[in-house]
Amino acid sequence: MDAELFPRERAQVAPGAVHVPDWLDADAQRELLEACRAWARPPAGLRTVRTPGGGTMTARQVCLGWHWYPYGYSRTVSDGDGSAVKPFPAWLGELGRRAVREAYATEAVRGPVPVRPVVCDASLAHSVVRDVPPSPAVVCDTPPAPWPPYDIALVNFYDGDARMGMHQDADERSDAPVVSLSLGDRCVFRFGNTETRGRPYTDVELRSGDLFVFGGASRMAYHAVPRVLPGTAPAGLGLVGRLNVTLRVSGFAHGHGAERIMGDSPS
Ligand SMILES: O=C(O)CCC(=O)C(=O)O
Ligand SMILES: [Fe+2]
Question: Which residues are recorded as binding Fe cation (predicted)?
Answer without folding.
Answer: 167, 169, 223
